[in-house]
């Protein structure tokens, strides 16, 4: 799922991205700081996280499992001077949850949060996809 989100972000036009770049690296920490915090206006996509919970169990051991796949993307900007395309870029990335390349799921969600550290603003996208397995 990470590769689908990463490809969708990389497929955005240069006009949409503006001065933002898309990193292919995972947002690991370097010197105690996340890599996305060191490289402002660079979009990082994290590895997918999987969570399963039983939805319907039977005595025979078969049933349905509800699986949630979560992928997070991050970027940091200067909070004092937001890029002119910030709002439109956030909206565009948020809508990537509806990409036609993401199939086999019953629910596609994306939440966006912001956090401030000093004069830096961290924007985090949390894409969640649900599907049923048996």
How is this structure best described in words?
The chain is of the alpha+beta class. 19% of the residues lie in helices and 45% in strands. The strands form 2 sheets. Strands 1, 4, 5, 6, 7 and 8 form a 6-stranded mixed beta sheet that branches. The protein has a two-stranded antiparallel ribbon with strand order 2-3. Strand 2 and strand 3 (33-34) form a beta hairpin. The chain is elongated. It starts with a helix and ends with a strand.
Short summary of the structure?
With 134 residues, the protein is an alpha+beta fold. It is built from four helices and eight strands; from the N terminus they run ααβββαβββαββ. Strands 1, 4, 5, 6, 7 and 8 form a six-stranded mixed β-sheet that branches. The protein has a two-stranded antiparallel sheet with strand order 2-3.
Secondary structure class reads alpha+beta
CATH architecture level-2 label: 2-Layer Sandwich
Largest sheet features: 6 strands, mixed
User: What string gives the helices and strands in order?
Assistant: HHEEEHEEEHEE
Assign the CATH topology. Answer: STM4215-like
* Low-pLDDT stretches: none
Ends distance: 20 Å
Number of strands: 8
Number of domains: 1
**Anisotropy-based shape:** elongated
Query: Which percent band covers the strand fraction?
Result: 35-45%
Helical segment count: 4
Oligomer: single chain
Helix content: 10-25%
Based on CA atoms alone, the radius of gyration comes out at 17 Å
Return the CATH class.
Alpha Beta
């Amino acid at each position: 799922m990470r590769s689908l989100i990463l490809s969708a972000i990389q497929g955005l036009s240069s006009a949409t991205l503006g001065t933002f770049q898309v990193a292919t690296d995972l947002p690991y920490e370097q010197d105690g700081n996340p890599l996305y915090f060191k490289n402002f206006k660079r979009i990082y996509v994290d590895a997918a996280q999987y969570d399963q919970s039983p939805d319907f169990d039977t005595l025979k051991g078969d049933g349905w499992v509800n699986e949630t796949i979560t992928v997070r993307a991050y970027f940091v900007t200067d909070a004092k001077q937001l890029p002119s395309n910030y709002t439109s870029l956030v909206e565009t990335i948020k809508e990537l949850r509806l990409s036609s390349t993401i199939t086999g799921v019953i629910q596609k969600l994306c939440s966006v949060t912001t956090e401030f550290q000093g004069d830096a603003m961290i924007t985090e996208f949390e894409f969640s996809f649900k599907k049923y397995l048996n």
